[in-house]
Fold these 2 entries.
Entry 1:
Amino acid sequence: MVLVYIDHQDNQIKKSTLEAVSYGAALAKQLGTEVHGLLLGSVNDDLATLGAYELKNVYQMNDAALAHFDAQVFVKTIAAAATKVGATTIVFSHNQTGKALCAGVSALLKAGLVTGAIALPNTSAGFVVKKSVFSGKAFANVSIQTAVKIIAISPNSYKVVGGASAAATTTPLDIAVTAGHVKITAVHKTSGEISLTEADIVVSGGRGLKGPENWGILLDLAKELGAATACSRPVGDAHWRPHHEHVGQTGVQVAPNLYIAIGISGAIQHLAGVNRSKTIVVINKDPEAPFFKAADYGIVGDAFEVLPKLTDAIKKMKASA
Amino acid sequence: MKILVCISKTPDTTAKIAFTDGAKKFDESGVQWIINPYDEWYALVRAIELKEKDPATIIHLITVGGADAEPIIRKALALGGDEAIRINTDSADSFSIAAQIAAVAGTEKYDLIFTGKETIDYNGASIGGMLAALIDAPYIPLATSFNIEGTTATITREIEGGEEVVTVNNPVVVSCQKGVAEQRIPNMRGIMAARTKPLKVVEPAAVEALTSIESFELPATKAGVKLISPDNVEELVRLLHEEAKAI
């Protein structure tokens, strides 16, 4: 059985979970087995609707000790649940939650783990999963040798496939939960912002914008596109933008449908964090900027002139569509 | 207080990524090796700052690797830390590395264990989580700030779309990223002192890897950039809509 971890936040199932479910469903088909979900806690979504993504059933645990996230407690619970239901492959999204959990479950079950997977495994001889390595500069094909396998799929790497007309069942699962040691004292949400790793479109700015006071034209474009905003390392280091926006080898790695880089020269470390984007647009006034070599579309021009025009043109296109 | 900082050796961020042996091995020729930036800039520097506040603190550095890992661990000692431990085996996969470190951590009883959030070569982001599970300690991944009063740590960690502040009593395993500390440059005194700091070589525990790398691939090269005039942004919008289907 393929078991997919159903991650949720604010009582809602995350988009990355739907990617993991779609991946799990395709994998189950490939292996000739069933796909089930594992939900710790509760959500407002109707779990039956997960059937649209071909999920057969959700195992749910509603223990009070699982109301707050504690990696140590969740890891033990997931490992016990996976063993109890007879999971042979466990699928996580490699988002912040997946990063907190998958490694621990792997260690407890001695189940081989591939994190940051970007495709379904090759099962023609063994079980080989492709993952991104060297921060996006290369890929590795990793063979898992253990009977139970764990895959953490990189966000935005697998398309959500919905539309099946089945309804998923829910089965309560009863496993003793140990008490945790972690107390959550505050949660700070960057309100209104679109999550960088889940975004379909990312608009990113570099030193070419000259200062934090000039970010308005970039934010206007991002708003028009429904895009998340990002920045290069020098911009994060200079505190022009919050450091969680820094994409690159030592920042966040993103793989959106569309990445628009504005005033970013395209140092190798920056490219490493963005080169899995499906389409890259570079706007830079320096025609020699290395980023143009990695781009699909480019405009050699002054961002301060190009950006407002681009925002207007998108507005017009949307109005005429 | 006793802190363990996990150190990994990685190729420099500007290193050319190429493979040999039928794309089965990373081509190390001409590669400059560095301390994994997340281990150095955040995990190690924060540990040093905690020792500066409380000089009774003991910092151990640990790495899993052959003798070729020693220049890197000496470089880490030049920044700070009291002694280093090298587990004398080639690192096979994340699980085997974590299990080797767990074998040492199990007997040494550290109050805090710091790792970087991931290495910049294999991007596993797994050592901290595996280690915490193996020694049954709380795990706080993706920390952006770390403070401790007595035995209670207050840690901010990244969650999707924001941050969460948690408190936890030690022992605890923390994976560190930007925000936890600021990068430092080792000074001459540190470099001299590092030469005489103890570097203990420990023989590995019997651990089997769970995974292995079959082969590597480089990404397909782009077809080439399509340049659009800055006076014709409508054309870019049209291409993004009709050709790339990105908007």
Note: Chain A touches chain B through 101 residues (CB under 8 Å).
Entry 2:
Amino acid sequence: MASQAVEIIQYRSLLRNLVAKDLKVRYKNSALGFVWSLLHPLLLMVVFTFVFTQLLDQDTPAFPVFVLTALLPWHWTSTAVTAGTASLVDNAPLINKVYFPRILLPISTVLSTGANYVLGLPALFLFMALFDRAFTPWLVFVPVLVVIQAIFLTAVVLILAPLNVYFRDTTVLVDVGLTAWFFMTPIFYSIEWVVPHLAAWMYRINPMAAIVSEYRVIMYSGGVPDPLFTGRTGVTALVLLAIGYLVFTRLNRNLGEHL
Amino acid sequence: MWRMAGTGDRGEIAVELRGVSRRFRLHHETRTSFQDWFVGLLRPRGKGEEFWALRDVSFTLRRGESLGVLGRNGAGKSTLLKLVTRVLEPTSGEIIVNGRTHAMLELGAGFHPELSGRDNVYLNGSIYGFSRRQMAERFDRIVQFAELERFIDTPVKHYSLGMFMRLGFSIAVHLDPDILVIDEVLSVGDAAFQRKGYQALRDLKARGTTILFVSHWPELVREFCDRAILLQDGRLIDNGPVDAVAAHYERMLQEQPTDAEILRLRAVDEAGTVLEAVPSGSDLRIEALLRVPPNGAEGLLLALDLYDREGTHLFGNTGRLADIMSHTSQGDAAAQRVQAVIRGLPVAPTTLTVAATLQRPSEAGLAVVDRQETEIEVFAPWSAQERGLLRLEHIWESEPGAAARRERTGPRVEIER
């Protein structure tokens, strides 16, 4: 395990290049390409705002900011999980020709979609300013949440990517699963609206619920994040990462034969 | 354990295989979806057919030495290379490799079409564990050797095949590997570049690079290698000075002439991804993987036939294999890839059966050498009420001659798309 960590450090330039490749291909080297990548969450923000404030007469103040604080990190999750699941199968020709630590492929998708998320945060700040939300010093806490989310997403894709090699319909199940997960995460609703004894379970089962709620506390409510709560989420993410790593190394062994 | 191999290190072991075996489960026996897995729970199948690509192979390769690997197609040469380069793990046995290995298995493997040549040089270098700085030092030499100064900032999707291969080859020879693994990639580009390529390999060899050279051309192995091993059906049957082993191999070839075969037939997209379904009206790309012995294409014919769900023969065409192969790129020598592209498949939704047949003219007519079939689902990308076997491009005109005028102004407008 230690030698593998050394190897990953040795190949760090590959990780950087894979991330850069993803971003360059996605944006096609143009600024408009980047705006395009924000289109999906922004469109959903418009739709949810219309549904909840116009059709349903919800009185949550600054609803666009309320929903965007959750939609942006969710967009990261859904793009990372989709791309991460496909990362090994998509790179089959390369895997069959050259040796390199294959674990870098799923990790790079988490990082490149994460870079996309971080680059999109200014759009959120813009809406925060437009709707007069408070910019508190606690914004410095956001990077901590980004790191926790990155660890959690890495854990998820380390399990799904090799699974997709053995069972090619994993992508189909992931697609369906993401839709269910979206509704089971407090994105277009607040965790406070959930029946209390179920809300506790939501936090326990779904790390995304905890992560999204923390983002919302900081960037929408202008409140103070709970370090103990965040710490628990972080530990959960690390435990999942260890499990994901073990699953990946286990399944990785016979990968070449199935690709 | 990375150390430059110099002449002073002669005698030290670069690669050692001890009793290495590799088993494969045949692909059609493996489950590749949850769906199959659930079905498998209800109806258990056998353990799956096994195939030993390599059996109990042992040899050593000393630093600075060059070893040729000879053997017929399917003898286990490619598997051996993949084991040495860590792409595959051995089922049993031990492989010891001292030094940085670089494989020229397929040139340009890992190039991304959307990225420029420059970006691809850095990306490709990092796949082999080279840092940005290490690649920057080599960058000018790589570009110069590949003769791509003018095009290095162009996305490689606009490169010709020759340019693509030249860049891949140039990167490979400039990474200064201790051990270079080559799988017949040298028929790259034009004759002038081939000479340059061979010269580059001779230089690497003179500088003490250990070379593992796989080929089924004994002449090439004689030219490049000091020693050779011979594989047959996954077993090592000879190991010694190159002339003796090459002679053994040539005798073997004369004793048992082989014939060509079709390894695989399937529909693919432009990137080579396998397709099970294509929309009607789109281009259908059919890929056949052929195993053709050296000079074995002479006199053979390759037929392509299309049938619909009812078995109606929709189309058929036969060409000389030698002509078809002359258009293919040199890749994996054990398997030749040929593609037939049917532009704008004019077939209504059906289950299309595509058959490829290798034939040889004989006194009694055409003898079938090998035949493979594959099924492709053709589906409708539009919602129109069209009928019949074919899907024909058509337009309605309200005014005779309007289409001709439209043609002058722009593309035709098709209804119901």
Note: Chain A touches chain B through 31 residues (CB under 8 Å).
